[in-house]
Design goal:
2 copies of one chain form a homodimer.
Chain A: H1 3-36, H2 53-72, E1 77-80, E2 92-100, H3 102-106, E3 113-120, E4 123-131, E5 136-141, E6 144-149, E7 155-156, E8 169-172, H4 180-192, E9 195-198, H5 201-209, E10 215-221, H6 223-226, H7 229-235, E11 239-242, E12 252-257, H8 260-270
Helix pairs in contact in A: 1-2, 5-7
C-alpha cells in the first residue's frame, strides 16, 4: 500500500465521520422542527399565549445540532445563527442555520431547510440541506453532491447544461431582496430569462444542483444562509460567487448558476450595480 | 325511519361514490404526473429530442382522470383544460385541471396540484387538490374539508380566525398577475399585511383552508384553476369570491380569506380597481 492509497483511506474515514455527523445532526433537528411546522395541521399542538413556536424551534434545533457536533468533534468551532459562536483553535468550523426560510416555515410551505456547512480554515468543503417534511436531503461532500429521500440510496446530482439566459429558469426568494439600481438590474435579468419564479429560499439552490432550475440570484445573504449550499452546488457542477465574482462563503449578493457561461451572463448584468 | 333520515342515507351513499371517484382519479393521475416531475432527478427519464414531458403529462393525466370519471359516472359532463368538453344532459359536471401550477412543475417545486371539482348545475359542491410528491390530499365534500397525507386518516381543516390585515399572511403566485391600477391596489394590500409570500399556486388555497395562511389574492384565473378549491375553502370556514364579491366559480379575479371580516378588508382595497 503506497502513501497515496493510505491518504485516500484516511480521507475516506474522515469523510464518513463528517457525513455521519451531518446526518445525525439533521435528524436530531427534524425532531424539533417538524412538530413546530404547520401547527394548524398538528393535532398535538398546544400553544400557550405569547409562545412563539418558530423562534423556539429555531433555537432548540440549533441546540440539538450543536450537541451532535460536540459529541463527534468536541474541539471544532461552531458558528450558528441563534447562539454564540464556539471559538476554539481548531481549523474546522461548523456553520448552522437551523431553519433557513423562516417565512416559508411560518406559512406552511415545505421549501425551508436545515443547513449545516463545514469549513477547514477558509474553505467550506461539506454541506447539507435537509427538508424534513418532504424527507429530502441534499449533501455536498468529497467530490460529489447527492440526493436522497426518506433514507433512500443517494443519487448523484448534476446541474443542467444551460448556458444562455434565454433558456434559463431563474429563482429568487422575492424581488424585495433588491433595491434601487440593483432592483433594476434584477428586473432586467428577469426579462431575459425563460422563466422566473419566487419563493424558494434554500430549496432553490438545491433545485439548481439537481438540474431542475438553472440560476439563483439573491442579495443580502449572510454566511449561515449560503455556506452549506456551496459544496452542494459546486460538486454538482455549478458556479457560485458574489455579484462581483468573489467567493460566496461569507454571504452577500449571490449568483449561483448551472454553468460558468450562464454565471458570466448573469454577472454581466448584476455586477454593474 | 323518517324521510329526512332516508334522504341523509342516500346523500351519504352519493358522497361516498363521489369521494371514491375523486380519490381514484387523483391516484390514476399521479401515476402519470410523478414520473414527469423532476426529470433531472429521475433515473428512468428517457426523453427524446423535442418531447415536452409537461404538456404530455398534462394531457395524459387528464385522459386517465376522464376514464375514471366515465367509469363511475358515464352520463356526467366533463370540462377539462386539455381536452374538449364532454356535453351531456346531466346536471352534474366535473371540472379538471390535471397539473395546476405548470411553472412550479417545470421548476421542481412541489406546490403544483391535480384539481378536480364537481358541480351540480351551477353549484360546485365537491373538490379535491392532490400534491402527489408530498403525498398530500385536500378534500372538500359534504360539510367538511379534510387533509390526509400518504393515505393517513383524514383530519378536518379549519381556517384561521384572523380578521385584520395587519395580522394576515398573504399569498399570491406572483405580482406579475396584476397590472396598472390593480397592481397598485395589490401592492397597497401587501403593505398592510403581516407578511406576503409568492410562488404557491393552488397550494396557497389549501394552506389557507388549513389555517397556515390567511389570505390569497390572484387575478385572471380560469374555471379550472379555482373550481375544486372553492369547497375546500368554504367548508373549512373561509370566504372566496371575485374582487367585486361575485361567486368565484367561473374564475376571474379572486380573493380567498380565512374570515368574512378579512375578506371584506381585502375586497375594500382590491374591488376599487
Amino acid at each position: 500500500m503506497d502513501i497515496s492509497t493510505n491518504t485516500s483511506i484516511i480521507h475516506n474515514i474522515e469523510e464518513t465521520a463528517f457525513e455521519r455527523t451531518l446526518l445525525d445532526a439533521i435528524n436530531a433537528a427534524a425532531k424539533v422542527t417538524l412538530p413546530a411546522f404547520r401547527s394548524g395541521l398538528s393535532v398535538d399542538n398546544k400553544l400557550d399565549e405569547g409562545f412563539d413556536p418558530v423562534t423556539q424551534a429555531d433555537k432548540e434545533a440549533e441546540q440539538v445540532i450543536r450537541q451532535v457536533i460536540e459529541g463527534a468533534f468536541p474541539h471544532h468551532m461552531i458558528i450558528g445563527e441563534e447562539h454564540a459562536t464556539k471559538q476554539t483553535d481548531s481549523p474546522f468550523s461548523w456553520i448552522i442555520d437551523p431553519i433557513d426560510g423562516t417565512r416559508a416555515f411560518i406559512t406552511g410551505v415545505p421549501v425551508w431547510g436545515t443547513l449545516i456547512g463545514i469549513a477547514h480554515k477558509e474553505k467550506i468543503f461539506a454541506g447539507i440541506m435537509a427538508q424534513p417534511f418532504t424527507g429530502e436531503v441534499f449533501l455536498g461532500l468529497g467530490s460529489k453532491s447527492t440526493y436522497s429521500r426518506f433514507g433512500s440510496d443517494p443519487k448523484n446530482l448534476t446541474t443542467s447544461k444551460v448556458q444562455n439566459l434565454d433558456e434559463a429558469r431563474l429563482m429568487t426568494t422575492t424581488p424585495a431582496l433588491f433595491e434601487g439600481e440593483q432592483l433594476q438590474a434584477y428586473l432586467n435579468l428577469e426579462k431575459q430569462v425563460r422563466l422566473a419564479r419566487y419563493g424558494c429560499d434554500c430549496y432553490a439552490y438545491c433545485l439548481l444542483a439537481a438540474g431542475e432550475i438553472d440560476l439563483v440570484v439573491e442579495a443580502g445573504l449572510n454566511i449561515y444562509d449560503i455556506a452549506a449550499l456551496i459544496p452542494i452546488i459546486e460538486n454538482a457542477g455549478g458556479t457560485i460567487t458574489t455579484f462581483d465574482g468573489s467567493p460566496a462563503d461569507k454571504g452577500g449578493n449571490i449568483i449561483a448558476a448551472a454553468t460558468p457561461q450562464l454565471h458570466r451572463a448573469a454577472m454581466d448584468i448584476m455586477a454593474k450595480k
